[in-house]
Write a structure and sequence with these properties.
Structural class: alpha/beta
Shape: globular
Distance between the termini: 11 Å
Largest sheet: 7 strands, mixed
Order of helices and strands: EHEHEHHEHEEEEEEEEH
């Protein structure tokens, strides 16, 4: 079985937790900050953090266009929380100058579940993840307002879409990397392996 090399976009956010979760899901995990590092990975995680800051840092580090090109060419990508916003084609309420990488035909709402002090955990049934619900950690989390015809909705919480997939791009509103349950990362690693076939 191939051991894929999966990068974590390490401009801002909870990078270390994703590196640990990916390694636990049998991938070689490494931080990615520069285009030459992006060129060496089979898949990429865009972590949680602050989507506006991440967008600006991606531009500053010369990463926006290389990321968009690799995603358009089929690079498997998994975005969590701010990462979900980054892989959206459209943000309902973007901050000034905020850009996305695209990849999923969806419209997202930033901080939809409330501010930091309204963060919560909830059990979430995710299609494609076996053995019961995953513990979703929602921290200033976005939700998906609407999706295009090609997008598969994998999970909802409170009547809102919180996990989606389109082709090789996966996204969740919540943070599975903070729970010690690596099943969502394992699903992504399997996606990356399938893309390498």
């Amino acid at each position: 079985m191939t051991t894929p090399v999966i990068g974590v976009l390490a401009l801002q956010g909870d990078v270390r937790e994703h590196l640990i979760a990916l390694a636990a899901a049998d991938a070689v995990a490494r931080p990615v900050r520069r285009p030459e590092e992006l060129a060496e990975v089979d898949g990429l995680v865009v972590p949680g953090g602050e989507s506006t800051t991440m967008s600006k840092l991606a531009a500053l580090f010369g990463m926006l266009e290389p990321l968009r090109e690799r995603i358009a060419a089929g690079l498997p990508v998994y975005g969590t929380c701010a990462g979900l916003i980054m892989v959206a084609d459209k943000i309902l309420d973007p901050r000034s100058g905020q850009e996305t990488l695209g990849g999923i035909d969806m419209i997202v709402r930033r901080n939809a579940f409330g501010r930091q002090n309204e963060s919560f955990e909830a059990a979430v049934e995710v299609a494609g993840v076996d053995d019961g619900p995953v513990e979703g950690v929602f921290i200033r989390a976005p939700w998906v307002e609407s999706v295009g015809a090609e997008v598969e909705v994998l999970a909802e919480h409170g009547g809102h879409i919180v996990a989606v997939r389109q082709g090789n791009v996966l996204a969740t509103s919540f943070h599975p990397e903070l729970t010690g349950d690596h099943r969502v990362h394992a699903l992504f690693v399997d996606m990356v392996r399938a893309a390498l076939q």
